[in-house]
Design goal:
Largest sheet of chain A: 5 strands, parallel
Helix content of chain A: 25-40%
Strand order of the largest sheet of chain A: 2-1-3-4-5
Shape of chain A: elongated
Number of helices of chain A: 7
Oligomer: homodimer
Chain lengths: ~230, ~230
Amino acid sequence: MDPLCVFPDPPPPLLAQTLDLGGYSWKAVGNAAIALQHEPADGWGGAVIACEDDPEGAFSIARSLRRRDNPVEPILVLVSGGQLADLEMREDLFDDFALSPFHPHEVEARLRHLFYKSGQGARPEIVEYGTLVLNLETYQAAIADRPLDLTYMEYELLKFFTTHPGKVFTRETLLSRVWGYEYYGGARTVDVHVRRLRAKLGEEHAGLIQTVRSVGYRFGQSRWQGHKAT
Amino acid sequence: MDPLCVFPDPPPPLLAQTLDLGGYSWKAVGNAAIALQHEPADGWGGAVIACEDDPEGAFSIARSLRRRDNPVEPILVLVSGGQLADLEMREDLFDDFALSPFHPHEVEARLRHLFYKSGQGARPEIVEYGTLVLNLETYQAAIADRPLDLTYMEYELLKFFTTHPGKVFTRETLLSRVWGYEYYGGARTVDVHVRRLRAKLGEEHAGLIQTVRSVGYRFGQSRWQGHKAT
DNA sequence: CCCCTATGTGAACGCTCTGTGAACCAGCCC
DNA sequence: GGGCTGGTTCACAGAGCGTTCACATAGGGG
């Protein structure tokens, strides 16, 4: 999961502790500019914004995270009792709020519920193998939370591999299953695509696609390969 | 607005008073059967369920209101601090919760926010995505507070995109879903409309519609859903 | 240790897809 | 009817990307 954007910097100690105990990764930011600057490549996983001390700065951050092309979701704001009325004019800037001082269990429950809802909204078709994730609806892929920029054929090949882990395929089989049954082309085409896939997977994951000499390629760990360390 | 379904009967005095002061009409029910029996013709306008005294009965009501063809929304539950953990297994039964004893202003703010959000969902006259706002009643659109002068087809295409963010659609799918199922025309039509949309969105927002080569188009930043939030 | 074959690698070629400008055509209003 | 608005189609250019080739390297059997 992508880290949460937390305001202010440093955040209230109890908030930091609650997030840590809840197992969330997060990064504190002091203003909207820093929030944009430190944003992960595929966006913040959400935001927790404490408004008590600097409500103006807090809502300005919320606004900058929300009112843009790829809005951050979910956003939880922490407010004091006296600030409750201020929320009314800013309903669109947050998804949930908690009264400060808060009980850690309440904030934890709110975050859990927010992520439940945002995950529930549109459950995409996902193919997973280890840290590798393929989103079939958006044609996007990521490994170890790092987005992969794949071309169409690379994506199709990786999808085929991921959905048939551990099995060895000859180049001819791959050509017919991935490229199409009537495809007639050189077998070296497969080699080149495998090479590019390995490169994009990164050195540490290149071993996911193994060469089986004189036969073809295999994806993932073979079942009998228990004696060999990676 | 349709009356709210409130549990238990009679509700805690402070809850009744809060609802009255907030201007909500409501009706107390003692169990799921009575809730169904007294339901208005067009359904409950929402529900507020206090779980402190009879959690079993409370969640059974929530279940019966939610797990059916026309689920009641929104549902706010009131729980004691010790019941927070019980919520985890029932994330789908409520939209928001408040800790009891509660401050009237907090419950008021939560109800207001719930209705604000469900107002978005239930009333289809406004569609929002980031700074992009579509008014379905007036056929007007704006991005970053700048009005967009869209033609009919441009508007329909943008509306379809905005209501299905993150997903990739082939040109054929777009033709059938936006233009009509029986439409038979060139796929390049989609390209041209996408181009004009991008132009009218402005250079800074043109990236909202992304090209997925050999596949089609995708709107908005696809969020990496699919990881578990826990 | 040598040789042959299979695979990795870098680069170049050429096809396909997309962006773009412009023309064409069908309603519609004055 | 004539101009106007807006949807569709066409032609062309550019870029992306799949394919192929040539060469380097590794692996394995004799």
